[in-house]
Amino acid sequence: MNGVLNIFKPKGMSSFDAVRIVKKVAGTGKVGHTGTLDPEATGVLPICIGKATKIIDYIMNSEKVYEVTLKLGIRTTTYDLEGEVLEEKDCNHLTDVEILQAVNSFIGEYSQVPPMYSALKQNGVRLYELARKGIEVEREGRLITIYNIEDIKINNPYISMRVSCSKGTYIRSLCYDIGEKLGVFATMTELNRAKTSVFSQEESININDLTKENINGYILSMEEALEKYDKIIVRGKYVNLLINGVRVGDNRFTNDKVINQKLYRVYDEENNFIGLGKKNDLGFKIEKLLIT
């Protein structure tokens, strides 16, 4: 059994719980998820099975869409309602125009500091392990991109919105940063991941509905999971060279005219899927071999 399940994770379940359930239903131990969702968050959690675990990083490294609600005027240890309330401020003086301007100011690239309650490691220790001991350390900001914020609904102190963002974005931190911009704090109250890569909530299956009888009907192939990458076809003798790890500098390796320096799905002339490849100044090479 090889492929990707477009799982919908309900509230109250960890991402590891979801993986454990899929392992049991699929009858295999080779299973992995493509980006943690907190237990109180809901939404799309693609889970890779068998050989598809090789493409986890390529699914994770994709645009994501979240539906989020935050509450102004409150700061917690975790940046969401799971944490201890540290401070509160009145936010009744803020106008809808001021709030909207603050929210929209985060569209684009910015350096985001991850929350202490996160799985990132510092000196080999996960930040949340330090946070649980009451230790707070300085974290470096990471460049992330907010592609778009839409469907903004303001009902002070609550704000709901739909956020399209890059890999590595912490929506909890975005909520916190909006509160800081407004000078009144903010905490995330609801989070749903509506889309990641080609996987949307509308086409997902609730993990509670997954069974041994229906699982095969929901498995997407690796090719379908990677369809956001453009396809190229490799000619004759160059196929074996690429499969054997050779970087091919001859531009005649494919009939496709323009090959940019980005990832491609690579096929032979019989339309067999070989893997993912990328060109640099020296030539084209397979980055992830996936031939079955």
CATH superfamily of the largest domain: Pseudouridine synthase
Compute the average pLDDT: 92
- Total strand segments: 19
What series of H and E elements makes up the topology? Answer: EHEEHEEEHEEEHEEHEEEEHEHEEE
Count every helix, treating DSSP H or I runs of 4 or more residues as helices. 7
Helix content: 10-25%
Broad structural category: alpha+beta
Unreliable parts: none
- What is the molecular shape? globular
CATH fold assignment of the largest domain:
Pseudouridine synthase
Based on the coordinates given, report the CATH architecture of the largest domain.
Answer: 2-Layer Sandwich
Total domains, how many? 3
In whole angstroms, the N-to-C terminal distance is 12 Å
Q: What's the story with the biggest beta sheet? A: 11 strands, mixed
Oligomer description: single chain
Instruction: Report the CATH C-level class of the largest domain.
Output: Alpha Beta
What does this structure look like?
The chain is an alpha+beta fold. It has 3 domains: 3-60 and 198-225, Pseudouridine synthase (2-Layer Sandwich), CATH 3.30.2350; 64-196, 2-Layer Sandwich (Pseudouridine synthase), CATH 3.30.2350; 230-289, Roll (Archaeosine Trna-guanine Transglycosylase, Chain: A, domain 4). 18% of the residues lie in helices and 36% in strands. It is built from 7 helices and 19 strands. It has helices at 15-26, 56-60, 96-104, 127-132, 171-182, 222-225, 238-243; strands spanning 3-9, 31-33, 42-49, 64-72, 74-76, 85-88, 108-112, 121-122, 125-126, 142-155, 158-165, 186-196, 199-200, 205-206, 219-220, 230-233, 263-267, 273-280, 283-289. Strands 1, 2, 3, 4, 7, 10, 11, 12, 13, 14 and 15 form an 11-stranded mixed beta sheet that branches. A 4-stranded mixed beta sheet has the order 16-17-18-19, with no helix packed on it. A two-stranded antiparallel ribbon has the order 5-6. Strand 18 (273-280) and strand 19 form a beta hairpin. The protein starts with a strand and ends with a strand. The model has no long low-confidence stretch (mean pLDDT 92).
